[in-house]
Amino acid sequence: MGEATVKFTTRFLLTSVLLLSTGSFAVYASDISMANQCLAYGKRVMKDNQEMMTLLSQAKINEESVQINNYSKALGKQFISTELVAKIHSDQEQPGNILCLFESDDKPLYFHLTLME
């Protein structure tokens, strides 16, 4: 194997690793953005419940726990494109899970919070 081939192979591998990690970061950032949309939607839905608003305003998303499931089917008569599930925690150490159903990637339709005790 010539020196030029080794240099090309090394550069190719480094470029591939860089591109793969950049792509996964973009997907990861998109997932976190969607989780933040879910949490913001939950705050709008729960705005009349002071106890829930206190909890949700302190909630922080556990970024490693965000799970996006593409659904793209009707649930009854309502079309659902995506399901998002993420773990949250707060300053009060109150862990929980949030669930959102999205009609599209930027339109949440349903929010649910499950508190862990």
Can you offer a commentary on this structure?
With 117 residues, the chain is of the alpha+beta class. The protein has one domain. It has two helices and five strands, in the order H-H-E-E-E-E-E. It has helices at residues 3-45, 50-58, and strands at 60-61, 67-75, 78-89, 96-104, 107-115. Strands 1, 2, 3, 4 and 5 form a five-stranded antiparallel beta sheet that branches. A hairpin with a 2-residue loop joins strand 4 and strand 5 (107-115). The radius of gyration is 20 Å and the shape is globular.
Write the layout of secondary structure elements.
Blueprint: H1 3-45, H2 50-58, E1 60-61, E2 67-75, E3 78-89, E4 96-104, E5 107-115
Antiparallel strand pairs: 1-3, 2-3, 3-4, 4-5
